[in-house]
């Protein structure tokens, strides 16, 4: 178990390393400055933007830093490093209640555009919940493409859970209706619903998601509804834009950022969380079934910005051992 966790964490670190190296390098050089002045703040700003933290979030963090520097009368640039890590970590902190849905009968609506890793994420979540002893069911409510249904079935088989589906072109609401009946009849703990992410047709998308929610609350009032948006970390500011657009059409309770093992610039997780003010709950760090991790803000921010104290972080991870 410990070995498994260690391996997991190592992968997160390696995943982020492509970005991490350049961020850590420029971060270190910023702190090599002789004093805190406008140039120092500007260089810091550039580093954050380079890390994909987005303009608004960067501004907020810098403003916050300036206040704290003033309050504590800090003179040394190096002393700002810990302050910055703390500011970002506090902002990213995930309340424990964010995972309450895992302890209740829950229906999880998984939203996001095609290609971001929705199917894969559903498969990974299904496998993890099943492994932890829960009864899991998957519903293929993206009926737009036959391939999407087939691919989800492959993941359901891999995870060892059942899937409710209709044919291509069927009404997604009908799939949800059947899935909810099945979940109730089978005393399912977690029902994961795949949805179609056609952002170019916002009105349809909004109606479709609203209809699904109506069916769930009418037919399964005891269930807790959780909606998770999946975003591809490698698409940077596009992911941010998708998050904005989805939040305009539906409620979002949590964020999953995938492909952090690729060329993603880790700052995107910070930007998206700040923008939506919704917690990042999971991160995808590979294509395999166990490559999904609960988001750990402390380990993440440290992995991104600091030289990284390996021993301490591994202990942190072991102590933070997730319930999954
Ligand atoms: P969907 O269209 O949103 O359902 O996306 P898929 O689940 O089909 O994923 C699209 C591609 O992204 C597939 O090739 C997946 O293997 C890949 N993918 C998904 N999550 C991750 C991840 O965390 N890391 C990596 N490297 N690839 C991923």
UniProtKB/TrEMBL annotation:
Q: Give the UniProt subcellular location, in the record's own words.
A: Cell membrane; Cytoplasm
Identify the InterPro entries for this entry: AAA+_ATPase, P-loop_NTPase, Signal_recog_particl_SRP54_hlx, SR_rcpt_FtsY, SRP/SRP_N, SRP54_GTPase_dom, SRP54_N_sf
* Binding site residues for GTP: 112-119, 194-198, 258-261
Q: Which UniProt keywords apply?
A: Cell membrane, Cytoplasm, GTP-binding, Hydrolase, Membrane, Nucleotide-binding, Receptor
**Which catalytic reaction applies to this protein?**
GTP + H2O = GDP + phosphate + H(+)
Membrane topology (UniProt) = Peripheral membrane protein
Keyword flag tRNA-binding = no
The EC number of this protein is: 3.6.5.4
State where it is primarily located: membrane
Q: Which residues form a coiled coil?
A: none
Q: Does the keyword Transcription regulation apply?
A: no
Q: Which residues form the SRP54-type proteins GTP-binding domain?
A: 279-292
Q: Which CDD domains match?
A: FtsY
Its assembly, as annotated, is: Part of the signal recognition particle protein translocation system, which is composed of SRP and FtsY.
Q: What is the documented function of this protein?
A: Involved in targeting and insertion of nascent membrane proteins into the cytoplasmic membrane. Acts as a receptor for the complex formed by the signal recognition particle (SRP) and the ribosome-nascent chain (RNC).
Q: Which family does it belong to?
A: Belongs to the GTP-binding SRP family. FtsY subfamily.
| Name of the protein this chain belongs to | Signal recognition particle receptor FtsY
């Amino acid at each position: 178990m410990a070995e498994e966790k260690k391996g997991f964490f190592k992968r997160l670190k390696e995943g982020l390393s492509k970005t991490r190296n350049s961020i850590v390098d420029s971060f270190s050089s910023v702190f090599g400055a002789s004093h805190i002045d406008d140039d120092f703040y500007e260089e810091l700003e550039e580093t954050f933007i380079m890390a994909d933290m987005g303009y608004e979030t960067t501004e907020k963090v810098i403003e916050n830093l300036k206040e704290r520097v003033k309050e504590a009368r800090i003179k040394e640039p190096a002393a700002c490093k810990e302050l910055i890590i703390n500011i970002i970590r506090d902002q990213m902190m995930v309340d424990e209640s964010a995972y309450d849905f895992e302890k209740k009968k829950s229906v999880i609506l998984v939203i996001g555009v095609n290609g971001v890793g929705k199917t894969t994420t559903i498969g990974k979540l299904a496998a993890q919940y099943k492994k932890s002893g829960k009864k899991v069911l998957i519903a293929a409510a993206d009926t737009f493409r036959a391939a999407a249904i087939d691919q989800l079935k492959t993941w359901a088989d891999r995870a060892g859970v059942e899937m409710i589906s209709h044919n291509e072109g069927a009404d997604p609401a009908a799939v949800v209706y059947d899935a909810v009946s099945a979940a109730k009849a089978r005393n399912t703990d977690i029902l994961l619903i795949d949805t179609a992410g056609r952002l170019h047709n916002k009105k349809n998308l909004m109606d479709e998601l609203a209809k699904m929610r109506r069916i769930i609350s009418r037919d399964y009032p005891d269930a807790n509804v959780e909606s998770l948006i999946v975003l591809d970390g490698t698409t940077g500011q596009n992911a941010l834009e998708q998050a904005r657009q989805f939040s305009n059409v539906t409620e979002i309770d949590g964020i999953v950022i995938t492909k952090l093992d690729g060329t993603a610039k880790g700052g995107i997780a910070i930007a998206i969380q700040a923008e939506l003010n919704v917690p990042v709950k999971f991160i995808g760090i590979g294509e395999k079934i166990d490559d999904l991790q609960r988001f750990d803000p402390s380990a993440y921010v440290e992995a991104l910005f600091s030289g990284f104290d390996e021993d301490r972080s591994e202990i942190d991870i072991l102590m933070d051992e997730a319930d999954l």
